Amino acid sequence: xxxxxxxxxxxxxxxxxxxxxxxxxxxxxxxxxxxxxxxxxxxxxxxxxxxxxxxxxxxxxxxxxxxxxxxxxxxxxxxxxxxxxxxxxxxxxxxxxxxxxxxxxxxxxxxxxxxxxxxxxxxxxxxxxxxxxxxxxxxxxxxxxxxxxxxxxxxxxxxxxxxxxxxxxxxxxxxxxxxxxxxxxxxxxxxxxxxxxxxxxxxxxxxxxxxxxxxxxxxxxxxxxxxxxxxxxxxxxxxxxxxxxxxxxxxxxxxxxxx
Length: 259
Description:
By secondary structure, the protein is of the alpha+beta class. 32% of the residues lie in helices and 34% in strands. The strands form three sheets. A five-stranded antiparallel sheet has the order 4-5-1-6-7. A hairpin with a 7-residue loop joins strand 6 and strand 7. The longest helix has 17 residues.
C-alpha cells in the first residue's frame, strides 16, 4: 500500500467579530482553496496524478489534504525554496499563480495562511497581507507561438475560444473572438490544424502562459502522402547516381577525410 502524507493550509482571521471556524467560513473561500491546491501540487501533469482527499477541521480553519508521501516531500521542498528565495518567480507558472491567488485572498479578507506538511522537518510558509508573493511582471513578455494538433471544441459562453489537443503542450484553450467563429462556414472540429497565436512567455525559463493565448491565424494542416511526388524524387536520385561507382565514391570520400 502506498504511503500517505498530509498537507495543511491553516487560515487565521475574522468573520465579522468572530474568529474564523468551519462554522462561519464561507463556502466560496473553501472552493478557492480547492481550486488552487491541484495547481500547487501538480502544475503540469494532472492526468496521471494520485488521489488527493480533503477534510476541514477546527483551529481556526484547517484545510487538510492527504496524498502520496512522494508528493508531500516534493511540495515540502517547494515551500522551503519559496521561503529561502522570498519569491515565486522560479516556480512553474500554475504553482506560482496558485500562490499568488492565496496572497490576493489574504489581502482581500485580511487572512493569514500557514502552509505546511506532515514531514518532521517540514518548512512552514506564511502568507499574510504583509507578504509579497507576487510574480515579477517584467520576466513575462509578449511572444508568438505555433501549435499543431486536433481542434476538439470551439465556442464559449463568455469568451469565444478554440480548444486544440496537442502532443507537445496538452489541451490548449486559445481565445479567438466571436467574429472569427461566425465567419467560419466549414466545420472546424476534429481536424488537424496549425495555430499561430500570441501570448506571454517567461524570458528566464521559456515557459508559456497557456491562459494568455490569443489566435492570430488558423492554418489548414492536412499532411498527405503523395506517392507520385515520392517516386519522382527517387527517379531523380537514380538518374544522378547512374554513372557513379558507389564503392569508388565512398573510398574517395574516406580518403578526403583522412587527408
